[in-house]
Task: structure prediction
Amino acid sequence: MVQPDHIYIIPPGKDMGIHNGQLLLMEASRYKGAHMSIDYFLQSLAEDQQNNAVGIIFSGMGADGETGIRMIKEKLGMVMVQDPATAEYDSMPATSIKTNMVDYVLSPEEMPVKLIQYLNHPAIRDPQAETDFTMNQSNHTHLQKILMLLRSNTGHDFTLYKKSTIVRRIERRIAFHQLTDYVDYINFLRENPSEIMQLFNELLIGVTKFFRDRDAFEALKNKLYPILAAKKENDPIRIWIAGCSTGEEAYSIAMLVIEYLDTVKLTKVPKLQIFATDLDPQAIDHARSASYFSNITSEISPERLARFFIKVNEGYVVKKEVREMIVFAQHNLIKDAPFTRLDLLCCRNVLIYLTSELQKKIIPVFHYSLATNGLLFLGPAESVGTFGDSFSSLDNKWKIFQKKEGTAALGNMLDFPFHVANQNNKNLKIHLPVKSLKSPMAETFHKILLESFTPASLLLNERGDILYINGQTSRFMQINSGEAIFNIHRLAKEELRYALGNAIHQAWDKKDKVEVPEIKIKEGDQIYVVGFRVDYIVEVPLQDMLLVTFHDYGPVKKRRADKGKNIDPSRQGAVEELEKELIYTKQQLHSTIEQMETSLEELKSTNEELQSTNEELQSTNEEALTTKEEMQSLNEELMTINLQYQNKAEELTQLNNDMKNLLDNTEIGTIFLDNHLNILRFTPQVTRLFNVIPGDVGRSITHIVSNFEYPFLEDAIKEVIEKLVGKEMEVSTKKDEWYNLRIMPYRTMDNFISGAVVTFTKITPVKAMENKLTSLINYAKNTVNLSADAALILDKDKKVLVSNKAFLELFKLKEEDILEQPLLELVHNKWKTSKLDDLLDSAGTEEIFIQQEIAGLGMMGFFVSAQEISKDDTGKTLVSVLTFKTKNSE
Result:
């Protein structure tokens, strides 16, 4: 059991987990060379401690811990990371920060105070139970205000998300900012719009990884491959990953399908269409980039890494051919149209965040989206709920379902999209517990009344479909053999069918009640008299429905003959019945004639409309033919243009490859920046000088930690962009490596300035040589100054490197007049002699005498000797010394 004031260290080659607060050691079960012990423990901590988990990442190498903090955030825990500026090794902290899921970035000294403040906040220390929250009407009102702020600023409505999840994430933000209650947080949201986006991102936190629940993917593979095997060569493979987050799940599915296609031999490979969607635009951008940290080696086998990934800097990028198989798009399950004819729909760990009412509406959408025998792949804590009749369960543990044929679930598609306006009020509000006002006695009494004393009745819609039945209706309806259709026009007894249909039509047409008093129906050998009434309902929520109430008057009784009259009783009864039937028939005939006249008028009007429509259709058909010819012509043009674009794309791809190889293989580090100093592209050599990764493209270079000690770099780049004049300087790194830094304006083909190009050329060896040369020159200068004779030191080009004071005084010269100047130029132009040419060419040790009139000094005579100091490999003189002696010095 974990004890206070103790530090637990994982032994080498082991994994440590936690279960019920108890630490467990186990053998590492990772791929060779990919032991991510921190990720493993943090994931275990998140599962065990849920929202009580706290992860802190300190200095360290690599990307271990990045997945772990994602899992902690998914379970509503808290994450702290050491400020990379204070870390000896900043790789682990920097990688964690790039997840955008870190709560605090602090130095180690600042962490204890923040940690204690956060954990001691009432929202964290004593979290409200969900029942307590729902009973708090005040908090309910504040929650609605927060959801309104989110909807108005982001366009997304979280009303249909589970309230418990939303409440816990809001309370986390309250604790993070050390606020008192919901009122303070609402005011904070209004004053800080950035916090609204932060809360939005918190609500959308979707954590995934490659092949999450590895056994689940193995089970999916066994169920999916037979469906793919049944595909014909021309049939596409269509897959939808709903809630793909940062793309790991989509690429995992793609790998499984590609591995299958590699094993089958088909003349034509089926077209693979994978749609991956999510509500979070940042997650979609990450998924499109397909760039992941090095810790994915703990999730993916070495064979798959080599097959599907490219190693780039300190991470991995999914290969282009895999990326092109997947279409990533922002999509809202609640209101955006679904993809259809799917062989696989993967929606893992999304439904758990939605209310049960919304889940009941989304599952039929999934059923509609799937093709025949299509698979539905859900998360371990999710299910199809009450729609078990629409799906076959292929794997109960890993929630793999197969679509059943039928239309039972399709009726729910009528409510799509599921806008908040379409939901009942019960779905929009957090209900307060309401105590029932009915006692068991009253309920039983009402039940007896309904069953024993109310007439048989039916609730119908306009078409006559039966929606509800009350009482015994067997005398009025009969179920016939054949297809089961629950419609009154098909189920009513023959004697009632015409009268009932006519009454239903009149009631719907007049929006009023229609009563038929007496109709005789035969049941066995007995004749019964019945009546019915059809009522049009205007009360909500049964508005626009029909209520049919039946009345049973019992069997027909034989009437006794009147005394004193010699009339046949049976004949008199028959006459009365015939009279009644005649009156009823006249009424029905009159009603029918009125309906026929109305229908005739409608038919005439419809016929005129149809004639007009026919003329319009003929005109439209002519226009369509013309449009078709134009479209054919346009299609040919588009095909030509498309071919040109394909050729251009191939040329651009080749040029891009050439440019990439050129930049990657040169030893010159290059960074391309836009006008706002955001990174557009960089070569691999730059990673030695700046802590950049491919994911930093688009970030400002001022946010990137560099290995230089020149804070004025930002100002220098801005000056080049503004003045359009390049800069060049020599800079050194913290490791005393020297680079030639060159900043030039970035010019487009149209000669517009669109940023800057910064190049770094390593000159450490040159700088070392320069330092040595400077030391040698200083040493030589000090040495020749000790000589009483006039002396010069020349380089390989016979330029003056050093002159001593005796030489300057002898020939009345200034040092700046001759340094770095060719000596022969001085001899030829001022001394007017060429006697030194041979001596300088041979650099021999013999001494020559020169007597020459020198301007400003008169006739002078002096001895000159030359001596080599160093040679190169070819024997050419690199440095030589000339000594001048006058006769007096002799």
In short: The longest strand covers residues 858-871.
